[in-house]
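I am sending you the entry underneath: sequence plus fold tokens. Let me know what the token row says about the fold:
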Amino acid sequence: MNRDQRLAMLGQEPFTHIGTPADSGKSHASYKGFSRTAREIFGNRSILALLVRRDIKSRYKDSSLGLIWTLIRPLTQLAIYFVVVGKFLGAERGIPDFAIYIFTGLTAYSLFSEIVSGGTASILSNAGLVKKVYVPRELFPLAAMGTALFNFVIQLAILLGIVLLTGNFRLSWNLLYLVPALIILVSFGLALALVFSAWYVYLRDIGYFVEIAVMVLMWASPILYSWGMVRDVITNAGIPWLLQIYTANPVTLAVVGFQESIWSTTDRGLPVPEHLMTQLSIAATVGLLCVFGAQRIFARLQGNFAQEL
């Protein structure tokens, strides 16, 4: 096939808009652009699965222990926090089975932090593909989310195993809290990953900002301490509105919901925010809306990715 024939075949291919939708001046353009991108992503789901497998394999390539490293990091964190925060600083007082409590919170927060951190760097780390091949750019943050979910499943299995072995598992309606909690962690994590990954292409300081923000947010979430401790401190200080702001943090709600589902917080006599399921449901809905908004921001910024990279 000569050059003229190839050009003629390319000329017959349907024209596809990339970036800002062509119907941006029409009503409901954002929704149409989002739905079109969703169909594109679904049509390229095999590529998404390939990217996830590639990320998992490359992370542990040439490693003797392989996937075991997925467990070593959180277990090391657990040991440090249990000894330093729990024993030395006395945070375990009033929190039964403090080690399980910490591991529950770390498992939930690790999912969120991995989605945000991995998603932020996803476009830049796949610069070669972005410059040479067109696929929906959203596939790269989604692949980072898939890798984070893979690691989360492994950690969750270990957590459930520990809970069962120690006799702390309680089959109750509290398990329902797990659903909105996971939706919050995944939706807000993906929304931030989409926005930050696009900004990171143009402003490299975003990487440092995300690193610091993820660290600060972990300490601002009830992982190494209980929500009740924060409530008592704020109540004694006479600033109840601050507790509302703290509790409105979606990551705080998700961690508390995760703890309630796995660790049964209220059954152990510790307080949780009032109307927790209602607050979780509202936050989950807001998180899904944030994914929509983040994708539209991403779509408007992706047009110059190849040139910037």
Q: What stands out?
A: The chain has one domain: 46-308. Residues 139-165 form the longest helix (27 residues). The chain has 15 helices and no strands. Residues 18-27 have pLDDT under 50 and may be disordered.
